[in-house]
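step=encode ok
step=design start
structure_in=
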């Protein structure tokens, strides 16, 4: 298991370098000028001085500066937000996105797994049919629609939650629920599919023939195997939710990392683009490594796989 983790760490580091290099190539090839965006229009002399200061006219040196900054975790200033460095923006926005994403993942697993299990156990019944319809609805409806609906009902008509903003516990439920609804739908569908495959397996019939309680067989033996596809999905899903959703953050006014990433791309802010991509890639790879470790813990046969 330790050797497997080391291999994953090495591959993860190489993947981050590749992602970082491709992102830099896109930054320097996509048309745009970080010094002339929107109302920013600095004098040509000042722009030339800044380009010389940050070696922006020599791509190799410029890329080397980015690599040194990535190793030292110092990404320099942001050209979109004056008086803010990229590190300060990430340090301010990332905890918000992580808190919101973890809560969304927790809600998705808490609701999606039991719903998927009960849907598989009661296959073709009214609960299963209703669940399949709700799952299709949850996957199909965009988050800006569900977010706007929840905000209108819960914030405007019922007045249970504040209309946008951030800073108190009351601001958490609506954006977290909006983010978790697609997760609930996917997790419920994956759990149902996995349970249907496992419930017909020989070891399940053997356990039932030996007199094991059906509830124990379903929730302890079958779910442990059926949960593996859900676990694979949780890695990238958690990374996506924890790095923020631009749509949800815009709808609810959440100061997370997602909107900074989109604004950086729109404003052609190279430092902020590179830093947010590195954060996303690092979180995605780290969570996938955690999933690999959990795989080996849940299914010991995998721990010895190459």
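sequence_out=
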């Amino acid at each position: 298991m330790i050797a497997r983790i080391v291999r994953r760490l090495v591959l993860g580091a190489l993947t981050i370098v590749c992602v970082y290099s491709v992102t830099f190539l896109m930054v320097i090839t996509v048309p745009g000028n970080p010094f002339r965006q929107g109302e920013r229009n600095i004098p040509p002399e000042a722009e030339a001085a800044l380009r010389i200061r940050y070696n922006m006219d020599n791509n190799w040196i410029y890329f080397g500066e980015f690599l040194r900054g990535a190793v030292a975790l110092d990404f320099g200033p942001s050209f979109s937000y004056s008086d803010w460095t990229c590190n300060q923006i990430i340090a301010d926005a990332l905890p918000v996105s992580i808190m919101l994403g973890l809560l969304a993942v927790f809600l998705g697993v808490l609701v999606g797994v039991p719903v998927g299990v009960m849907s598989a156990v009661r296959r073709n019944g009214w609960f299963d049919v209703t669940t399949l319809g709700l799952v299709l609805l949850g996957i199909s409806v965009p988050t800006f629609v569900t977010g706007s609906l929840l905000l209108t009902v819960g914030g405007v008509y019922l007045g249970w939650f504040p209309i946008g903003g951030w800073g108190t516990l009351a601001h958490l439920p609506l954006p977290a629920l909006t983010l978790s609804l697609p997760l609930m739908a996917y997790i419920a569908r994956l759990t149902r599919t996995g349970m249907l495959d496992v419930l017909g397996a020989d070891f399940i019939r053997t356990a039932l023939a030996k007199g094991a309680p059906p509830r124990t067989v379903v929730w302890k033996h079958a779910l442990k195997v059926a949960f593996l596809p859900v676990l694979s999905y949780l890695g990238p899903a958690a990374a996506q939710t924890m790095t923020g959703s631009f749509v949800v953050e815009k709808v609810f006014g959440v100061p997370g990392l997602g909107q900074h990433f989109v604004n950086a791309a729109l404003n052609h802010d190279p430092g902020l683009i590179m830093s947010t991509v590195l954060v996303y890639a690092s979180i995605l790879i780290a969570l996938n490594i955690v999933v690999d470790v959990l795989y080996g813990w849940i299914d010991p046969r995998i721990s010895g796989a190459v």
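step=design ok
step=annotate ok -> The chain has one domain: 86-303.
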